[in-house]
Structures are given as structure tokens and as C-alpha cells.
Amino acid sequence: MNVNIAVVDDEERIRQGLAKLVEQTGEEYRVVGTYANGQELLDALGGLQLDLVITDIKMPQMNGLQLIERVQQRRPKIKFAILSGFNDFAFARQAIRQGVEDYLLKPVDQSELSELLSRVKHNLELDSYRKAVAAEEHIRLLLSNDVSHLPEHMTQGASRELGQSELFREHYAVILLRTEPELAPERVVSYMASWTRAHKVLAWEPRQTVVVTAIGHGDHADTARELGVTLLQRVPHPIYARLGASAIHQGPLKLREAYLEAEASLQKVWYEDGYKAMNDVHHLAKRGDEGMNLLRLLDKDFRPALQMLDVARAEAALVAWLDDVGRQKPSWQALAEGCAAVSGLIRSERSERGPQPDEPEEEPVVWSPKRFIHWAAFTAAFLDAAREQLHILKEARQGNRVVETVKAYIQRHYTEELELQRLADTVYLTPSYLSKLFKTETGETITDYVISIRIERAKEKLLKEPSLKTYEVGESVGYPDPAYFNKVFKKVAGVTPKEYRERVRL
């Protein structure tokens, strides 16, 4: 950075000589004025870009300490160094207590001057860095938060500090740039090298950069849009870029409003095809009740297809729904809510039919559009996930049919020896898978189901065919061993077959 310096001394020879020494120290040190007394400097102060004043400590009418005090009242950030003779040490010590950087003894030594100027330059750079960091923190705070939800002292402090900067002196706009691959802020800054207006570039969310740019008196309502177009044109091909621009605002406390406008504009062009696209808030259509509209579209075809377990029709309805969504270009929030509704409907249908064998318990997926670079990528990922869930639902429906088939077979052949392999062969499954599927769908094992069918049939025969001996009843339902039949019957019914017949007669 350059250091702008003023030299004040009532002796022309000294001030001109010192000015020459300053300029010889390095091209970054520039003498912007030499003055014979303090009043001359004060008269010129309003029109000077000034970082450092080097002043003689003893001058007529107004000494150096008085000059420093009066300049500090008007321009408190200007730094000072004093020229002093050996006999002026008491003055020099007082000046240092007033915040003077250092003092130089007459005659001025070049190396001492060089050391002083280097130290001042370092301190100015440090101040500038701290100021930039503080300004960025204030901007981030106001971009990210509704000011009504922040403590008043924070908002007022941020507004006061930012209001003094060139960026917020008049009007400003917010531009939101989203790229793939992600661009470092420094690279975005390089695309804006020709901009003569104040601007601030901030790294934001992944893939996104925020640009806050000053809008001056000579600008117009479409200036923010024109700046966005210019910036987008500087982004080289084949970087994928989307850009949204806000309206023009005044006052740092409007930063959040401006950001939300830029974000809404960006979300709209997220749906567009091609490598580059932009929009601004003035070209946004008014949003209606997007969430309800998307849910109504789901209710039209998708929900009925799911309820009827017509998976092919449900998939076709989902594709048509996404086509409608792409044409409407809803906000990301409305889109995420619509996709959550789709996932919820599929999960609901699956839960009503119970989990499948070996199926892990799943956490609901949150479909955040901002994770995807564009609408096409989002659609592809969402359709793949939905199709997978519909496929699982289809298998669940097939599982229901398999279980019903096995149950019907058992009811027809319960008197026979029912081996698991034989049952599995009837539905073309492996025995182990059939066992898991049956248990998942019914809550009981195949063996338990066979026993329950046989015992129910045995109860019927014991009541309706009193002439049959209990062992004959056992044989007729698949238990040729009377002792085993008695054991199984008592385990299920709580009494022996004979006791059951006698109790019912009573």
C-alpha cells in the first residue's frame, strides 16, 4: 500500500529537505503536501487523502502538539510523527503519550526515517487488515440474520461501522454466484478487476460466492443486473455458473433482504439448461402457494397409484410430476417439501405392508436442492432414489402374494408332510428366504402356522364328529403319533383333546 504523508515545519529548508528524504525512501511513500504552519494543514485537510503527518514540535502560533490535537478531532485515524531537537525531549515524551508513532531528531537521519516510515506502513496495513476483517464479519452477520432477531447493540454497531465505508455510503446490491467447480473468492475478484466501484467478495456456502457492490448516483435500476451479466461473462467456459441479483438497497440493515432477493433469483435460474444463466429480482414471477400446489399435483395421480399398488403407474406419475415442477420452478424450500412428501407417501405404503426380510431400517432422506449443481442433477438423483423405493414396494407386494400362496397351499395340504423345501418350490424361492419372508409378513413361523391350522381343524372334528377317537382326529389332521398330537394340542389349546371335547360338551 502507498503511504500519503504531509510535512509541517516553519523552516522551508527543513520541510523541503525532509520531503525529499521521504520520497527517496521508497516509491510507496508519497508527500502529498508541505506546510509552513499548522493552520495551512488544517485549511487543506478536507481535501487530502492522508495517512501520516510529520510535524515540527516547535512552531509559532500553533505548536506541533496543538496541531496533533486539532487534527485528531477531525481525522482520528491519521498517524503522527514529530521533529524534535535534543532540548525538546519533554515535548516529545508528551507527544508520544498523545499517540504519536515516534519522533525524529534533527537533523533527520535517512536510516531512522526509513525505519519510522516502514513501521508506520506496517501499522497502517495491520489497521487496514483489522478493519477489513471487522467489516467482513459485520457483513456476514447482516447477510445471514434477520436484524429483528439480533440484539440491538449488535445491529446498530454493525450498521454504524459499515455506514462509514465507501461500499455503503450510497446504495448497494447483492449478487449471488454459484459455480461448478467452486471458485475461490480471489478468482472471482480477478474477474472484477475493471470495476471502479467499491465491492466486497465473500466465500459463502459450498459452490457459492456473495458479491456486495456499491451503486452510485450515476447508476440506474438495472445496474445490478448489468453488473451480474458482466461478471457472468467473465467466468470462463466450461465452468457451470448461475447468478442471481437483488434490487438496489440503501443502508446495511437491508443486507438480509437483499441477500434473500438474490437467492430467490438464483434459485429460479437453477432450473435452467446451459452453462450460464442469470436472473434478478425484478424478473421474478410472484410466487403463490407453491407447497400446496405441489402437493395437489401429487394427490392427482401419484397417491392413488401408490394406494392401488400400481408401481408402474406411480413411477409414470412421478415423472410427470417432476416435469410440472420443472416448469413451475418453485423455491428450493417448496421443492424440498414436495420431495419429502413423495418419500413420505412411499414409506407410508411400505410400513403398512411391513418390512422385508434383511431390509435395514432407513432414516428419511432430506432432499436439499442446494446440494445439487442444477435441476437436471437433482431430478436424476431423486428419480433413482424414488424408483429404488418403488421397487422395494413392488417386492413387498410380491411378498404378500407369496405368503398368501403358501398359506393357501398349507390349508389344502395340512394333513400331509409339509417340508420347507416343498413349500419353497411352490413359490420358486429358497427355503431360507421363504422362512424370513413368511415371518416378516405374518409375525409367525411356517411351522407355527401349520400347527395352528391343524389344531383348528382338530377342534372342529372333535366337536362335529364325536364318533371319532381322539387319536383318529390326530391322524386326520397330520399327527399319526397320538402322544405327539396330545402334546401339541395341549400346548396350543391349554388342554388335551379329550379335555377339550368334554369341556365343550358341558
Strand content: 5-15%
Total helical segments: 19
Report the strand count: 10
Mean pLDDT: 87
The backbone outline, from C-alpha atoms, is: elongated
Q: How far apart, in Å, are the first and last alpha carbons?
A: 110 Å
**Which stretches are poorly predicted, pLDDT < 50 over at least 5 residues?**
none
Biggest sheet record: 5 strands, parallel
Rg, Å, rounded: 42 Å
By CATH, the topology of the largest domain is Alpha-Beta Plaits
Task: Characterize the structure shown.
Residues 404-503 form the HTH araC/xylS-type domain. The chain has three domains: 3-128, Rossmann fold (3-Layer(aba) Sandwich), CATH 3.40.50; 149-283, 2-Layer Sandwich (Alpha-Beta Plaits), CATH 3.30.70.270; 402-505, Orthogonal Bundle (Arc Repressor Mutant, subunit A). Helices cover 56% and strands 12% of the residues. It has 19 helices and ten strands. It has helices spanning 12-25, 38-44, 64-74, 89-97, 110-144, 152-163, 185-191, 223-234, 255-269, 290-307, 311-328, 332-352, 375-413, 420-427, 431-442, 446-464, 470-476, 482-493, 497-505; strands at residues 3-8, 29-35, 52-56, 79-84, 102-105, 171-180, 199-203, 208-215, 240-245, 276-280. It has a five-stranded parallel sheet with strand order 2-1-3-4-5, sandwiched between helices. Strands 7-8-6-9-10 form a five-stranded mixed sheet. Strand 1 (3-8), helix 1 (12-25) and strand 2 form a beta-alpha-beta unit. The longest helix has 39 residues, at 375-413.
